[in-house]
């Protein structure tokens, strides 16, 4: 089992002929992902060779889905075209759209998120500004390195791409069911809560790691959800304890205002509902090891 992305997932790349689409499309293929094609309206009908495989290029997501049975799209379209790319995928009722692109204007993200919601949330959007989704041993959609961990029974949801990689590597001997990088922008599609719910329902996920950071109240809301709905052990790490007030740190959403959005407030909210919170990424991995020893 895995959440969102499985060994049967059939993946297309929106923007497959661009430099990033080519590079990461080839990397996904090499990882064993079933990449079945991609889109570029100006190159419809052509093919592209990635990692020794000839893949078809379609003009639209709908055409790609009809021809290949694709059920996942990974978006490597530049910022100016990302909103239209996601809207197109929603119109085609693509089940899962993973938006890797960073630097997207917040109002564009708000627009395509609202568009997906208005269409019944038939399309799950992950991102933007995220590393993607990886189910080790099954499929890898995005930019998460495929060789840093193994298949196992830990579920990971993270705002930070870099900390996603570190946690996966530090716990590589135990392994992961799925790792989801949700992105650190102020507005994102899939949230901590969405992933917590899915991991709770996944019979092959035994424990959950939640990585958050300063800014907003996503971690506090996740804590409230955990208290009501999650019975599996959750271990967390919150980045940004030393961040100065009022300054954006890395992600566009990582900014604190007064006492709101601080790492300490998030840590306290999580610990209040029984979540163990690590002081460092490595310390957090150690807590996960303690949890997994008893399972």
Layout: helices, strands, pairs:
Elements: E1 10-14, H1 19-30, E2 34-39, E3 47-50, E4 53-58, H2 61-68, E5 72-75, H3 79-91, E6 96-99, H4 106-118, E7 124-126, E8 132-135, E9 139-142, E10 151-158, H5 161-170, E11 176-181, H6 192-201, E12 207-213, H7 218-229, E13 234-239, H8 263-272, E14 276-278, H9 281-293
Helix pairs in contact: 3-4, 5-9, 6-7, 7-8
Can you give me a brief rundown of this structure?
The protein has 295 residues and is an alpha/beta fold.
Please characterize this protein's 3D structure.
With 295 residues, the protein is an alpha/beta fold. The chain has helices at residues 19-30, 61-68, 79-91, 106-118, 161-170, 192-201, 218-229, 263-272, 281-293, and strands spanning 10-14, 34-39, 47-50, 53-58, 72-75, 96-99, 124-126, 132-135, 139-142, 151-158, 176-181, 207-213, 234-239, 276-278. It has 2 domains: 10-126, NAD(P)-binding Rossmann-like Domain (Rossmann fold, 3-Layer(aba) Sandwich); 148-293, Rossmann fold (3-Layer(aba) Sandwich), CATH 3.40.50. The chain has a 7-stranded mixed beta sheet. The chain has a 7-stranded mixed beta sheet with strand order 9-8-11-10-12-13-14, sandwiched between helices. Helix 7 runs parallel beside helix 8. The radius of gyration is 19 Å and the shape is globular. The model has no long low-confidence stretch (mean pLDDT 93).
């Amino acid at each position: 089992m895995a959440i969102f992305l499985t060994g049967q997932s059939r993946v297309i790349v929106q923007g497959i002929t661009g430099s990033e689409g080519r590079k990461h499309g080839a990397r996904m293929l090499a990882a064993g992902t079933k990449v079945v094609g991609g889109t570029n309206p100006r190159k419809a009908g052509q093919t592209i060779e990635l990692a020794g495989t000839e893949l078809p290029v379609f003009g639209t997501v709908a055409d790609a889905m009809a021809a290949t049975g694709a059920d996942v799209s990974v978006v490597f379209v530049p910022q100016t075209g990302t909103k239209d790319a996601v809207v197109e995928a929603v119109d085609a009722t693509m089940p899962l759209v993973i938006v890797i692109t960073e630097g997207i204007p917040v109002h564009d993200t708000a627009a395509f998120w609202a568009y997906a919601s208005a269409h019944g949330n038939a399309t799950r959007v992950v991102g933007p500004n995220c590393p993607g989704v990886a189910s080790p041993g099954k499929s890898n959609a995005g930019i998460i390195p495929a060789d840093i961990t193994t298949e196992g029974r830990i579920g990971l949801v993270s705002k930070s791409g870099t900390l996603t990689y570190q946690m996966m590597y530090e716990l590589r001997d135990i392994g992961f069911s799925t790792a989801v990088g949700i992105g650190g922008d102020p507005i994102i599609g899939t949230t901590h809560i969405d992933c917590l719910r899915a991991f709770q329902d996944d019979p092959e996920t035994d424990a959950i790691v939640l990585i958050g950071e300063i800014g907003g109240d996503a971690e506090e809301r996740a804590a409230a959800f955990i208290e009501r709905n999650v019975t599996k052990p959750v271990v967390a790490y919150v980045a940004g304890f030393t961040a100065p007030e009022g300054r954006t740190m890395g992600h566009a959403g990582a900014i604190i205002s007064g006492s709101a959005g601080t790492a300490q407030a998030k840590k306290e909210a999580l610990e209040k509902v029984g979540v163990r919170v690590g002081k460092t990424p490595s310390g957090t991995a150690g807590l996960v090891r303690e949890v997994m020893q008893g399972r």
